[in-house]
């Protein structure tokens, strides 16, 4: 992926997406457009990602983590994890993370209360740029309690309470919203993958993955024709985050036909493959995980042509 290329191709890509959005309706013989309906997934369909896997998905009502109890940032440096790639660590070697619900332009933190207990904010006061870290990308943001939080590339930085030792990356992918920080403030990832691509899984065969190498899934209660409809709403989305829209040309190995987006009931845009809505799984902690496969008998990895891998035919 090349940022400059992406910027230059926005107009062309937008036109391509517009053209593709009629495909599902044409193939199904019905009218085109988005429908904002769909039943909420039953509890058994959501899946069990284990205790703590969904921590810090938003603000909480618990006591605010005390800045006095937080460890200083110290000298930041870049470390390499075999699965994730290059990421930023603090002076003690602990992984630093970013939260998708925060913003970088302008920097803003949304993790408070219980969230800040599970994801302690990194103090900005003593942060130093070590090897591989650009001092110019370090900054700070004022938290609601008046303390200053470190930012990297504009993104507020956190640690994860369950990382017990230097080098731990247990926070990677938690809730589908927490990711290790790269030195430029982006999400750390092992390879410069396209927005959607495929990999050969030893058990499932060729399956679709996102730009972080995380497995992409389909929900069998969704609809594709005549228009995409997602049945995963509410709490379901905390464990099955939607795949955001991708540029059609920013894919590799995925069948381009009916690669489109649609508008969800909450107004958000979601990507589809073969017109079927696609998701990732909060229980997948690192690239290569397929813990969502077969959950509830309704969630399955996606083949390059959009079919659910391993689902029983009706």
Strand order of the largest sheet: 2-1-6
Give the end-to-end Cα distance, rounded to a whole number of Å: 39 Å
Helix content: 10-25%
Judging from the principal axes of the Cα atoms, what is the shape?
elongated
Q: List unreliable stretches of 5+ residues.
A: 1-22, 27-44, 48-68
At a glance:
By secondary structure, the protein is of the alpha+beta class. Helix content is 11%, strand content 20%. It is elongated, with a radius of gyration of 20 Å.
Can you give a write-up of this model?
The chain is of the alpha+beta class and 314 residues long. The protein folds into 2 domains: 3-52 and 194-301, no CATH class; 67-180, no CATH class. It has 6 helices and 17 strands. Strand 11 (196-201) and strand 12 form a beta hairpin. It is elongated and about 60 Å long. The protein starts with a helix and ends in a 13-residue tail after the last strand. Keywords: Signal.
Which labels suit this protein?
2 domains, 17 strands, three-stranded antiparallel beta sheet, alpha+beta, 6 helices, three-stranded mixed beta sheet, 11% helix, 314 residues, signal
Helix-strand blueprint:
Layout: H1 3-8, H2 10-20, H3 23-28, H4 43-46, E1 75-81, E2 85-89, E3 97-99, E4 103-104, E5 107-108, H5 114-118, E6 128-129, E7 138-142, E8 148-152, E9 155-156, E10 178-180, E11 196-201, E12 205-210, E13 217-219, H6 236-239, E14 261-263, E15 269-273, E16 276-277, E17 299-301
Parallel strand pairs: 1-6
Antiparallel strand pairs: 1-2, 3-10, 4-5, 7-8, 8-9, 11-12, 13-17, 14-15, 15-16
